[in-house]
Amino acid sequence: MSSLYRAVDIVTKSSAVPGILANSLLIYLIMTSSRTHIGNFRYLLIVFASYDIFLVILHFVLDPKIFVVPGIFAVVLDFRYGFQFLTCIPFILFMVPYAILITHLLYRYWVICEPLKIALFSKPQFVLSLTASVSGIYAFLSTSLYF
Q: For the whole model, what pTM was predicted?
């Protein structure tokens, strides 16, 4: 079992370089080769790729280990300067792309079904309330994971 664990660890750590290179290439191609008719959608793609680079680096540095046995789910960090709350951070940050995607899907839904509501995305109050609700969910999850 030790050799399987070691193989998984090597594959996980070696996937950081291709992940960073692929996302960097994607950002470069979006910036240089994308057509203007995709508009602001390219900025969303750049945000996704940039955040994926951040997650790959974070995963490489913190090196979380997940152990699952019947009835138990445990996560430990193989990180010298770790503390208890640091264990929760990779899992909370893993949910950020989902929040961005949900916001994007809401925007697309309103473009197709309710075009009058698209103007809400330009209002600071709407953006602030959307950001506050997502931040509240993250705060709730982080405290529930911590305690």
A: 0.72
